[in-house]
Design a protein that fits this description.
Radius of gyration: 22 Å
Structural class: mainly alpha
Strand content: under 5%
Largest sheet: none
Shape: globular
């Protein structure tokens, strides 16, 4: 068997291992080790790669941005920022049809601006919003679907852990990717609010009503979210203005949210240790997936699969737009099986060389950024796509009384909103790129 055939056969084997519930990082690590052993006829390269890949991964300065953003999210929760965001959004929107659900989406968008993780955003905002949604008569399936969809804004609105990984894999500027993600992120939040409005009109019994809040109380609630705005402007604005690098910005954000949590009384010695341990556990999981993907991608590079695939696609004369649509559809399907980070690490080394060879009328840098935002959005859709959308299970684990089937039914409306948004961004790349 040639190295190319070996590389192609590794895909179904990898997917089978994932289907059998093997940890994704371990599955990629084993496929990479076995593949390199067969391809080179010995274990020397495998052992060498285990040493060099582990060192280069865990000593990477760029990757240190990940634990900082995760810690920032932990401190933001302790500082009561998630509750303040929801209360402010609820006071302004809650009296409308589906207003409490719209407020949950808006709060998720705000929290996503200080937390780079989708699952963390979904889990944190659920603790705050689910009781209120139940209190005002929102149906279980509609509530959980809204929070699952809103949670995806955590990786779309900068800062984003997944965008950091994409930037490292494709050697792009992290700050420019963050800037390009901002408008699509705002469009996502607006699209979800419109979806909520449509859903409650089609299903009037799915949402109750809430009394209108006086303007004085609304303004007081708005004042309470100043720490979120301060941290976002300091971190993202500081990165764009060149005050500090993205890694330094993440550190400043973590320190700032920690200080706010300390002043608010949420940060004690016990909660500080808990935040550090939780961040360390999440970072270890992410880094292990990165390590497994690194070894597996080394095997794929040796087998020439990405290069051969790129040459084959270009040689077939397919329309660049057709190739792009096929790749995005593939991500939608893969999203039913894998989490967002694993998808990015597994597929970008294969698909990015293919897309780079196609002519979309954009400069190489703009093409890389545009493609990255499209991939990020489609990966985000995978987080809420049945049957294995990660956010759906996170939310349902916090609301045991709601059957997962009810969540599946309601979340299809949000998936439709995502598909419309992806279509607009594909047809009009300038929506993503005009800020650059």
């Amino acid at each position: 068997m040639s190295n190319l055939e070996l590389g192609l056969w590794s895909f179904p084997v990898l997917l089978l291992m994932i289907f059998l519930r093997a940890p994704i990082g371990l599955a990629m690590l084993l496929c990479g080790m076995v593949g390199l052993t067969y391809a080179t006829g010995g274990t020397n390269m495998v052992l060498s790669k285990l040493k060099s890949e582990a060192y280069s991964t865990f000593s990477s300065y760029s990757l240190s941005i990940i634990p900082m953003f995760l810690l920032m999210g932990q401190f933001a929760t302790l500082g009561g920022m998630s509750k303040a965001l929801f209360k402010a959004a609820e006071s302004w929107l809650g009296h409308r049809k589906g207003g409490v659900a719209m407020a949950a989406v808006g709060a998720c968008a705000g929290f996503g601006a200080i937390c780079g993780s989708s699952l963390a955003t979904a889990a944190t905002m659920s603790q705050v919003a689910l009781p209120e949604l139940r209190r005002y008569g929102y149906s279980g399936g509609f509530s959980t679907a809204t929070l699952a969809a809103g949670g995806t804004l955590g990786i779309l609105i900068p800062p984003s852990v997944v965008l950091v990984i994409y930037a490292i894999l494709t050697e792009q500027n992290i700050a420019k990717l963050f800037l390009a993600a901002f408008v699509p992120g705002v469009l996502a939040a607006i699209g979800y609010m419109i979806t909520v409005s449509i859903y409650v009109r089609l299903h009037p019994g799915s949402a109750g009503t809430r009394e209108r809040v006086p303007y004085g109380e609304r303004l007081r609630a708005l004042v309470d979210v100043w720490p979120v705005l301060l941290v976002f402007i300091l971190v993202v604005g500081g990165i764009y203005l060149g005050w500090f690098t993205p890694t330094e910005g993440a550190s400043v954000g973590a320190a700032g949210t920690g200080l706010i949590a300390l002043l608010n009384g949420g940060l004690t010695w016990r909660t500080f240790i808990g935040s550090i341990l939780s961040t360390a556990q999440s970072t270890a999981m992410i880094f292990f997936i990165v390590l497994g993907a690194g070894l597996y991608n080394s095997f794929l590079a040796l087998s020439q699969v990405p290069q051969e695939l790129s040459e084959w696609v270009v040689g077939q004369g397919f329309s660049p737009w057709l190739v792009l649509v096929m790749i995005l559809v593939f991500y939608l399907v893969l999203g039913c099986l894998m989490d967002s980070l694993s998808m990015i690490l597994l597929t970008i080394p294969i698909f990015f060389p293919v897309v780079s060879q196609l002519d979309f009328g954009l400069s190489p840098e703009h093409l890389a950024i545009w493609f990255g935002i499209l991939v990020l959005i489609v990966v985000e859709v995978g987080l809420i796509t049945p049957p294995v959308g990660m956010n759906l299970f996170v939310i349902n684990s916090m609301d045991r009384d709601t059957p997962i089937s009810a969540t599946y039914g309601a979340v299809t409306y949000f998936i439709a909103s995502d598909i419309i948004r992806v279509s607009l961004l594909v047809i009009f790349p300038s929506i993503t790129l005009f800020l650059l």
